[in-house]
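#struct-queue
[09:14] JT: dropping the first one here, sequence first, then the structure tokens:
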Amino acid sequence: MGVRLYDSRMTHDFPDDADDGPGYDPDRPSKSQVKREMHALLDLGRELIELSPERLKQLPLAERLYEAIRLAQRTPSREGLRRQVHYVGKLMRDAPADEIRAQLDEWKNGSRKQTAALHHLEARRDKLLRDDDALTALLSEYPQADSQRLRTMIREGRKELLANTTLRPGQEPQRKHYRALFQALRQLQDPDAQP
């Protein structure tokens, strides 16, 4: 038996649109794309299983999907959990995945935004305790603010800071007015915030 060499006569003329066989639909996603989407839904289902029941109730979930997620949360065996996760992934096909992802993203990034806002308020409070001009800037930004109350809190906060510099080891620093000033700033920024 010999080795067959390439022969130019053996070339085949394939049409350029070889995929256009019977049943081919150019608008239909490929099998790989469908598989990626299913894995993404499975991952989203896993994220939902890790949420608290209170958070789950805030999402637009069908009752059947909600119950499947709750069952997965209560399933102790590894194999049972694996099967339940796949069932949740299957039910996710009919769920509004984009809305759910948007809400999850808001919860994750919203907390970052809240943390950044709190850090901004802390920096502003510290500036108010250091600099008299900071109060003028604050009052121009929030003309409805009670200037007398803010001045009192700043004065008391400065006294607290001064007293805290002379503490002996083991003594707790006083922070009553320091915290009250922070809460007042928070109320100014968001009137609906809890004091």
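[09:21] JT: and here's the second one, same format:
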Amino acid sequence: MAVTVDEVRAHALSLPRTYEAFVRDRVKFRVGRIVYLAFSRDERAMGFSYPKEERAALVASEPDKFAMPSPRDERFNWAQVRLTAIDAEEMREIVTEAWRMVVPKSVASTHLGAGSTPALHTPSLADLRAAADVFNGFADIDRSWHSLRDGTGPALDLARADHRDALLRWLNSWGCRIRYPREGEPALFDTGLAGWWATWQDALPSGTLASLSDSSVAAFGRACGELAAIPVAAGRAARSLGPTAAAKTLYALRPEAIMAWDAAIAERLHGARDAAAFTRHLTLGRNWARDVLSETDVAEDALPGLVGRPGIPLSKILDEYLYVRFSMKKKMPR
């Protein structure tokens, strides 16, 4: 099960622009001046490039395998994995995805070729049940969602300050790490979200994922792009809301329609995280939803119970499948 430094070295050095360095008794692998892999001194753990907005959820999903970085490294896109907890195949996926984060997309695409975008089949009922089993194994996995719904019922209304605050807390419960403003600081998330909602409140489509038209999918793509650009922090730590939190916000507003994503899913499936990529993502989800419903021949509201996730919309079930497959890198039964 465990992998060795030599196995990692062999794979990492096969990736273009990678070179090895030995710094303060630690083996590291770099592209240019950027470190994307680093071993602990005892070589039992490996740090790797990973989107910092996603790592809390990654660690929570498999705490015996993944760990947060040291406090001094928390500002970086970085996570850690225990080498005794992964096999060679998973190691290669982790190393390759870390490398993809630090090289130009053209380099990754040229090297990986057709493999840069995995061949995707419509998930079967067995696939969805397997992913549901994983999620059902997490303690209180749906608690924060039910808390948001109960606190903002009958529907999330971003014209209300208390609903915007509830959304912020829900996003952070899922690892989005949006800083709460200190006293006297401008509430950029709050004001930006209110302005975005003033534009989109009446224009945001509704319906289920399977029923979305091409124009509705395109509208969601534009809405996601504009939402992702909202400033949430200023100064030296300036940042925008970003595509992961934007997709989750759209899900909170239209849970029946939105198949959300995270950085690992977006980059692995679409090679980008912009509005056009989200449009492609929803198109994929819509096609999958229709295929799954055709395969099972059940009503959309009955399928969650068939899968083992009653009360959870099909859009979220498909998102969970992608999370298990690409973010957690679990093999699905065939």
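[09:30] RK: nice, looked through the second one.
[09:31] RK: The chain has 14 helices and eight strands.
[09:31] JT: good to know. The two ends are 22 Å apart (CA to CA).
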